[in-house]
Amino acid sequence: MVMVNLPRVDSHPAERYPLPKHSSGESGVTDPDQQRQLEQLEAKIDAAKRRTEPTPRADEHYSQAQLAWRMVIELVAGLGIGFGMGYGLDWLFGTLPLFMVVFTMLGLAAGVKTMMNSAREVQEKIEADTAEDDTPHSGKDEGA
How far apart, in Å, are the Cα atoms of 134 and each of 8, 103, 114, 127, 131? Predict the structure, then answer.
């Protein structure tokens, strides 16, 4: 099997080899049919470029499922870190169940506290958005 490496082309041939422009700004095509075809081709190229452009992301828009997963992960992370620290201290000092239980409870408390902070943050954002929507616009009567 023979592999052929073709050079990569980063731009469209029309961009690399533009048609000469007259002083009036028009392309060098004088035939009206060719001019119409050229305009249609440019419109198709522009449409294709617009289709392939990435769509902008909405800033800080979280769905309810994303928020729920965030809170679950924060709780489990707190439990896991507490359990790991407690187990490590128990292994180090040879007191197997003591520190593991204490630090697991501390990890649970830290996870719940972090979850509550996340819930408060989301609630404040929702209240700010609601207050922003409820504010009067300018005092002018738009209907009259």
Answer: 54, 46, 30, 10, 5
